[in-house]
Amino acid sequence: MKFGIVVFPGTWSDGDCYYAIHNVLGYEAGYIWHKETDLSDYDCLVLPGGFSYGDYLRAGAIARFSRVMVSVERFAQNGGLVVGICNGFQILCEAGLLPGVLLPNDHLQYRCQGTYLRAENNAVPFTSRCSTGQVLKVPISHYEGNYFAEDAVLREMEANGQIIFRYCSPHGEVTEKFNPNGSLHNIAGIINNGGNVMGMMPHPERVCEALLGGDDGNLIWESINDYLHGRTE
Amino acid sequence: MTISTAELNKVALSREEYDFIVQKLGREPTEVELGMFGSLWSEHCGYKYSAPLLKLLPSRGERVLVGPGEENAGVVDIGDGQVVVMKIESHNHPSAIEPYQGAATGVGGIVRDIFTMGARPVALLNSLRFGPLENEHNRYLFNGVVGGIAGYGNCLGIPDVGGEIVFANCYSGNPLVNALCLGIAEKGKLMKSQAGAAGNVLMLVGADTGRDGIHGASGLASRTFDGEQELRPTVQVGNPFLEKLLIEACLELVQADWVMGMQDLGAAGLTSSVIESVAKADKGVDMDVLKVSRREEGMTPYEVMLSESQERMLVIVREGCEDRVKAVLERWDLCADVIGQVTDDGLAVIREGEKVVASVPVSLLSSPPRYRRQGKKPLWLEEVQSWEASSLLDLTARQCNETLLRLLSSPNIASKETVYRQYDHQVMNNSVVLPGEDAAVLRVRGTEKGLSLTCDGNGRYCYLDPCAGGAIAVAEAARNLVCSGACPVALTDCLNFGNPEKDDVYYQMEECIKGMAQACDMLQIPVISGNVSLYNETRGEAIYPTPVVGMVGVIRDLKRRCTMPFKDEGDRVFLLGGEGDGGIGGSEYLAVMHGLVKGKPSIDLDREKQVQQCCLEAIERGIVKSAHDCADGGLMVAVAECCIAGGIGLGGKEWCIDGRLDVALFGEQQGRIVISVAPDAVTKVEELAYKYHAPLDYLGQVGGEQLSLEEYICLPVEEMAKAWRRGI
User: Fold this and answer.
1) Per-residue pLDDT tens over the stretch B289-301
2) Substitution target from B239, B427, B429 for chain A, most A beta carbons within 10 A
3) A224 CB near a chain B CB, below 8 Å?
């Protein structure tokens, strides 16, 4: 079982993801340079945060044309697990692997702060370690995290249980007050229809140790590990 | 002499300096040569006025590996085979003209200084000064600067972990933007900036060269200016994405033993980086401007040599290894031009193809004149210092609540969260104590240690008493680190002053530096790097003399770090360092409540040292549960901040205030720290205070939902928090 962390020029959460997944949790992990195409070594791909290609034009808009993305798409189509965090989420939306788009925050400012997330659906490979309704403390750090999708798409996603995380209060109330960027329905993280591609704006890799203010983020990596072991064993 | 005064002004050279150049060369300089002299002899690059004064600062210490002026940044040993590389730098003038790009490229420049040396940049801090935000232009500058720091720094993936923001009228139109970067490297693996042996090849890496930033060093940073519009082209435009690629590529390059030196291109562009690196090696250089990739056609050699286009590095490699450099760069989609070679003759020869456009001794270019002036204490200073508190009515007990709320919502004291939440302060997974505390704390991977970082300055104190103010800047920075449980190990300074050719400004500069030196000596903290920003004035009015101190300390065991918030009900709160007898002069209280900037701040450095040593030992032994520096706004603001941060109150009883109320509650006597301890640790802290001869006064018990101190203060924590959060 091996995590593959995709590195684009301008990616900067690659090291943090590697640290959380490998150094803290002890899972096998490796970096995938954006010019690579062979992903056969990996069981789960992570598209980390950062400013791929400077996020010039629009966040994720250039990275989606990277050579590695053709392989990422094939990997996802074959049912492989893919996690996009922050910039990675933006790239997955741009690539059409996830529905919707990430607009600039409604207040038009960058935001780096702690947020609380309510786990909405634990029947997916990424959140099985959470209980439904559990509140996770995970920070955000982005300028374009304002999730938007057409009404019809949104209705369908809600109906299918594709909303995985919503911004909430420390006690789990989903209200406008605790929405840090204007996302529709307080959406912080979603999955695709197939249930194998997840994107989230908050950074689980940043909360991997008590020293750094908590370890709620590990639940995601541990869930994935459980799922992959369940499947392979 | 045929040259006009206007032409000399353009390059910021005096007639005397020009005549000296002519005499040394035995001829008139060419246009390119003149531009090179102007830049290298500017205050910004050449430290004409400040160099003699900077020698007063102590720069030695057992941990110091590279001191000021030797390389792009200073280096200290932090043990376990690791070193810290640190420097602070100003980008005041560019930010005054184009705040977003000015601040952004300020971040870019300081980050390059760190990775040029082979260190991975791991933290940014910034110290900012603006005029009051009620003024629309100040608001524009403020938003632009904060946006620029966020826009550039966030893209790099380097956490911006702390800093300070201060407002005062004197910074209207002349904001101060000082950026600090800290890097970590393996000991013995640092890269030098010198060019090495003759035959080594100069390669220019990164961005193409454009017409931006020409005369940034000489024109912008080294003289006063008023008209703003026409200066905008002298400000550079940043590309943080390219910088990020450069960081990664250069950190790969420094591993190679065929890379002999590396020097970033900052102020005065190619001119300063090429000349400085060959000057350090006592060599010459032969280079061709036609080899430099450009952004636009028709650039003259003068423009190429003086362009301050950002995100460029000079990489000096052993002859024959050029292709190896290109191979490393290719991975990052970066290009490199071979632009010249190191020579043995000590001459700087600049060509445009076949044509020689400059040929001057490197030693002459790199030895700017030095001016040691005689400062004079200005008359106005006597007058403001002679002010006595007795000319003001004291506070009454009934006014104390309202006064505290006013101070908490004063922009200088109020929460800066609306600013720092725009900066990524957590990337790299090392941030243990986040912004909003006395100091930021980072863990050092693979060790038990932490690094504690802070930036401090106090222009108002320095204005009222430059020597005491300089000492306070150093002492307060150290105190902040101590409150986090760190032992201060090194400082970097950014000296922001007005026009040094004026007597009173020179006096301020000299006295501030003397004061800083005294505090450095007393607290045994060496200065390892720094930067000078002079000519900070608009329409003839100088800013407050504002030395800014960036400091790093080491926390031996991260488990024993300390923070500001009061923690648990029943904990006992003490003031370490004695109750206020330092008067009310220079205080935020005086400025906010009475609109006065008068009086004479002071500092007792012996007391300061006792208090800091006592506090540090108490934290290291695990006796103290919270510690907070008592600074702007005095004792009441300090305890209010501990309550707000902890979301818990404090009840004080049997307070007896003998002297003036305003002094006791809001006076800003130095050398004081508010600490809280568990009830069973009271004896231990008393013993420690006795050991260090540090005064210790009991303030009250943690608990409840309000701050209440006898008949003086009674405020719900929530109400104080609201006032504190709405400040800016």
Assistant:
1) 999 999 989 999 9
2) B429
3) no
